[in-house]
Write a structure and sequence with these properties.
The chain has 136 residues and is mostly helical. Among the domains are: 1-38; 80-135, DNA polymerase, domain 1. Helix content is 46%, strand content 3%. The chain contains 5 helices and 2 strands; from the N terminus they run αβααααβ. The longest helix has 37 residues, at 2-38. It is rod-shaped, with a radius of gyration of 40 Å. It holds the Pfam family HHH_3. One of its GO terms (biological process) is protein secretion by the type II secretion system. The chain crosses the membrane at residues 18-39.
Length: 136
């Protein structure tokens, strides 16, 4: 009977060891998981310096001038006067479609870029594209 009690004791002792090892593993894993959240390490930003490419010269502000012939008359050549241009000529401008041309015609007389900017639908990029191509 002593042998049986000894085997049970050894088996119970082994199970306790495994339970203890399992509990220790769970606690260790929990600590490793929650540790960075509870004790964050301070982060210092790193500065990097990069050389920028040289600035290219600005493109010419002169509008394109197209040759005219007896049979070919370009819609726009040089600066286009927004107060006298037809809707077809206005539509030939970049970023101007039929509805924008109708809004420009309805807003006449235009005296400056501020008047053109006041038209709904004319934004910064449209103004930038139209500035070298139009006159008032």
């Amino acid at each position: 009977m002593n042998i049986w009690k000894g085997d049970l004791w050894k088996q119970a002792d082994t199970e306790r060891k495994w339970a203890l090892a399992l509990a220790a593993g769970v606690l260790l894993l929990g600590g490793l998981t929650l540790g960075p959240a509870l004790f964050p390490s301070p982060r210092v930003p790193t500065l990097t310096r990069q050389m920028l490419p040289p600035i290219a010269a600005a493109p010419s502000a002169d509008p394109p001038v197209y040759p005219r012939t007896a049979s070919v008359q370009p819609l726009i050549s040089g600066r286009l006067n927004l107060n006298t241009a037809s809707t077809e000529q206005l539509e030939a401008l970049p970023k101007v479609g039929p509805s924008m041309a109708a809004l420009i015609v309805a807003a006449r007389p235009l005296r400056s870029l501020a008047d053109l900017d006041a038209i709904k639908g004319v934004g910064e990029s449209t103004l930038k594209a139209l500035t070298p191509l139009v006159s008032f």
